[in-house]
Amino acid sequence: MYNKILITTDGSAVSRHTACAGVEFARQMGAQVLVLYVAPTYQYPVAVEIIPPSYPTEEEYAARMRQVGGGHTGAVVAAAQQAGLEVESLTAFADSPGLKIAEVAESRQCDLIFMGSHGRSGWGQLLLGSVTNKVLSHTTRPVLVHRLIKEPAS
């Protein structure tokens, strides 16, 4: 039914549990897995006239974020490999993770986006926004939203 599944992670305990559920789902489907971490884009300091020497360059920032992304996606990649799945990981950069997830799913021809919901509701969702809602409203791909019953320990 699904040949390539995009599994998102932000490195949190909730997303790690969701990603494990995504790997199990992909195993049952016999699907390939693409694990995605979206890092914030580089921000130039605009409040200062001279960039401090300790401020990272854009290249240093990108390298560090790819390292962070590899740390967040590494456990998911290992779980997928252990399950015998074909897997790759990607660290992408964007100011809007939801839009980037939708874009990557389209460009990488994923059949399904598997992601979590942090369970925000009411004012929290209204004020903070929701990556999941953004993905749902900006993709034509099916999205499977995995919701944890209780918050996992860190």
Features:
alpha/beta; globular; 5 helices; 154 residues; Rossmann fold
C-alpha Rg (nearest Å): 17 Å
Could you name the CATH class? Answer: Alpha Beta
The outline comes out as globular
What is the CATH T-level topology? Answer: Rossmann fold
Low-confidence stretches: 119-129
Strands, total number = 5
Helical stretch tally? 5
Find the structural class using helix and strand composition: alpha/beta
Strand content: 15-25%
CATH architecture descriptor: 3-Layer(aba) Sandwich
The name of the CATH superfamily reads: HUPs
List the helices and strands and how they pair.
Layout: E1 4-8, H1 13-29, E2 32-39, H2 58-82, E3 87-93, H3 97-107, E4 112-117, H4 122-128, H5 131-138, E5 143-147
Describe it.
The protein contains five helices and five strands. It has a single domain, classed as HUPs (Rossmann fold, 3-Layer(aba) Sandwich), CATH 3.40.50.620. Helices cover 44% and strands 20% of the residues. Helix 1 crosses helix 2 and helix 3 crosses helix 5. It is of the alpha/beta class.
Put the structure in a nutshell:
The protein is built from five helices and five strands, in the order E-H-E-H-E-H-E-H-H-E. With 154 residues, it is an alpha/beta fold. Residues 119-129 have low confidence and may be disordered.
